[in-house]
Specification:
By secondary structure, the chain is mainly alpha-helical. Helix content is 49%, strand content 10%. It is globular, with a radius of gyration of 12 Å. The relative contact order is 0.19.
Length: 84
């Protein structure tokens, strides 16, 4: 969960994705324009209840569903491009 109101590229999101961890964050334009991948969920900024609900939903996913979220060639290319 990334409840930040001031993010740009966000290395935190990139690092989470690189280790196979889904991300829930606010729908900041700087994030929605970069992280258009299944493992990244956006909720309306300042909507704390939705942030909590989405986090609970993701926490209940089984390993297979999480693995399916990450089986995206474009996501893997993105992570490789921005990893060093």
């Amino acid at each position: 969960m990334l409840p930040s109101h001031q993010e740009a590229f966000s290395v935190t999101v990139l690092e989470a994705l690189a280790v196979g961890t889904p991300v829930i964050t606010y729908d900041l334009p700087s994030l929605t324009s970069v992280y258009k991948f299944k493992p990244v969920s956006f909720v309306r900024e300042f909507d704390i209840a939705s942030l909590v609900r989405k986090t609970e939903e993701v926490a209940k996913l089984d390993n297979k569903k999480i693995e399916d979220m990450f089986s995206d060639a474009k996501l893997n290319e993105f992570i490789a491009l921005h990893s060093s």
